[in-house]
Each structure stands twice: as C-alpha cells, then as structure tokens.
UniProtKB/TrEMBL annotation:
This is Ribosomal protein L23/L25 N-terminal domain-containing protein. Belongs to the universal ribosomal protein uL23 family. NCBIfam families: PRK14548.1 (NF011118). Gene3D superfamilies: 3.30.70.330. The keyword Coiled coil does not apply. It comes from Aquarana catesbeiana. The keyword Protein biosynthesis does not apply. Keywords: Ribonucleoprotein, Ribosomal protein, RNA-binding, rRNA-binding. Coiled coil: none annotated. One of its GO terms (cellular component) is ribosomal subunit.
C-alpha cells in the first residue's frame, strides 16, 4: 500500500521472460494509462515482479481499485 500511495506505483507479477519495454506497453494497452518507469526483480522463488510507476497525471490508487473491480467482474 505504501508504494501505491507514496510513489504512485503498482506492482505486478509478470512472466520471467518479459522485459521492461514489454511490461510498459502491456500496462499501457490493458489499462489505458501512461507509465513513467518500470523496475523489475526476480524473487528467490523464481517469480518476477514489476514495479510500474505511473505518470504524474494518473493516480495509482484509482487504477488499483479499477483493476480490482474488473477482476471481480471477471471471476
């Protein structure tokens, strides 16, 4: 929650083979938002996390709520 509020950043689990450019394009296309920066890390268990910082004119908390709402509709 701290990353969302303080850094305007969303965190995703992504494919290990995905690079930063691919992640940025996918987030932009799926959620129709501008991405400022992408940082990645591979966890010890082999999963890859992407920390996606949004452009200043987007609020990560609003986007997270929208994504959560869409996930509820799909399930």
């Amino acid at each position: 929650m701290k990353k969302i509020e303080d850094n305007n950043t969303l965190v995703f689990i992504v494919d290990v083979k995905a690079n930063k450019h691919q992640i940025k394009q996918a987030v932009k296309k799926l959620y129709d938002i501008d991405v400022a920066k992408v940082n990645t890390l591979i966890r010890p268990d082999g999963e890859k996390k992407a920390y996606v910082r949004l452009a200043p004119d987007y609020d990560a908390l609003d986007v997270a709520n929208k994504v959560k709402f869409m996930a509820c509709l799909l399930s």
